[in-house]
From TrEMBL:
Pathway: Amino-acid biosynthesis; L-histidine biosynthesis; L-histidine from 5-phospho-alpha-D-ribose 1-diphosphate: step 3/9; Amino-acid biosynthesis; L-histidine biosynthesis; L-histidine from 5-phospho-alpha-D-ribose 1-diphosphate: step 2/9. Its main location: cytoplasm. One of its GO terms (biological process) is L-histidine biosynthetic process. The lineage of its organism: Bacteria, Pseudomonadati, Pseudomonadota, Gammaproteobacteria, Oceanospirillales. The gene is hisI. It comes from Vreelandella salicampi. This is Phosphoribosyl-AMP cyclohydrolase. InterPro entries: PRA-CH, PRib_AMP_CycHydrolase_dom, PRib_AMP_CycHydrolase_sf.
Amino acid sequence: MSSLFKQLERATPEDTLPPTSALLDAVTYNDQGLIPAIAQQHDSGEVLMMAWMNRDALEETLRTGRVCYYSRSRGKLWRKGESSGQQQQLKSAALDCDGDTLLLQVEQTGPACHTGRRSCFYVAITPTRAHITSEPLIDPAELYGQRS
């Protein structure tokens, strides 16, 4: 944990904090320069997805209000909804106490998951079995314009 986040442990809402750029400098990114970002529907609290952000994606998200992630498979910035149309508009962003995880409160348009489901978290598991908790809202082939 950076010394800045250690100092923030005692901060109160009345305290003046450093500029956002200083906080982003103190964020603990992994070896690939990424931080996990959890997207949550702002009004219902539903957890929609987890993806990765690098500093560029985080800065773009804060600047534009449209959520942008870093796609590890594509090796580039990924603006949520650029191929599916299912965008996320940022309502608020918060770093955790260690500065190594991000929580995004978003307004999600349609499904957040590439499977066409509202949430990526639809495979429930117990000690003995798993089950699917939701149906796709949209057929993934339709979502991505891959009609057969």
